[in-house]
Predict the structure.
Amino acid sequence: MASPFFPAIETCPIDAIRNFQDIKLREHLHQLNSISPFYKRLFASSKVNIEKISGFRDLEQIPTTSKEDLQRHNADFICVDRKKIVDYITTSGTQGDPVTFALTEKDLERLAYNEAISFTCADAMPGEIFQLMTTIDRRFMAGLAYFLGIRKLEGSIVRVGNGIPELQWDTIQRISPDTIIAVPSFILKIIDYAENHGIDYRSSSVKKAVCIGEPLRNNDLSYNTLARKIVEKWPIKLYSTYASTEMATSFTECSAGAGGHHHPELVIVEFLDDQNQPVKEGEQGEVTITPLGVEGMPLLRFKTGDICSQFTEPCSCGRTSFRLGPVIGRKNQMIKYRGTTLYPPSLYDILDTIDYVDNYVVEVSTNDIETDEIVIHAGSRQQISMMESDIKDHFRARLRVAPSIVFHTFDEIHRIQFPEASRKPVKFIDNRVK
């Protein structure tokens, strides 16, 4: 496929990709040692000699970087004169206090390129029309990245933003977009709106959705409950994508639906265990990233908190770089409940199968014996207060344990899920004693 947004490095033999990344890593280390206040101090205090780091296999000699490092020493990560900064963004704050990131013109260009090659993974072509159903304001990187990437791809974009199903359908009917960019659970909401207002959504112009913020697949890469509910009603093509502000890079599925493709030009990725050692191939580990080519706030061995596995066999699309599996959960959201280890997505997947549960929030707290307690706040447009035992049976069948259930109206849960200043829906509330 001859395209500036299908990089040749992604179809090279694995050894060639590794050699390419080793060269980029050495360049990155010299950059950090020259201009980063944080990493110069880290290298000195940890007695790291970057001249002895020849490539990926030597990364274990360097300490990892955490979200707490970014929170405590935010300004020390900035590597440019403030006059070169053209955009300030913040992380969403789902893992603690939001962190500010500073981007230069070069960083915005890199962001645009990343999204252009990621949309190309999702079979996007110049001239396509994309409807953006996520915010582009509120210091949010993702919405800006999509806008820049679609422009670079020479597509068109309609910036509708999140929420307001009526406006989403008005836009679809007026402008006829090919692709929507949305959180998967919101796609169910616009389907519900269409069914309740006589809109023939199955005959609309929309043929595919690039989905963010929630997983679409199980560990074996089959569709999870949320994805199945979407395509059973609206047979559009779904593409899962994974990214974060810190990595400034996306992992997006191709049409094979076999994991998010790694872009070797843009990021080095490790999968680490609790002792910061690489996991064996096929095992789950914490995604730890070293973004390449970032100018304003470059990072090294940053631990994302997300637990994933990787797929290393070549993809049917021709790409040979590894693919990232679905996020199994966030490390700091792991729940120990009555002898069972759980992550919130496993709870969401069960709740998504229950038709009369229209929305929900999972709350975790510390009980009197200092173990984790789970309460499911279930919302419905129906009277479902007699369905507690049925919901618990669903959990016992899949997880062998059943959390407590508290019933609410749909509107009560909606207000919890979408607080006024939120950029993402709230599904998990962690009230545990730290």
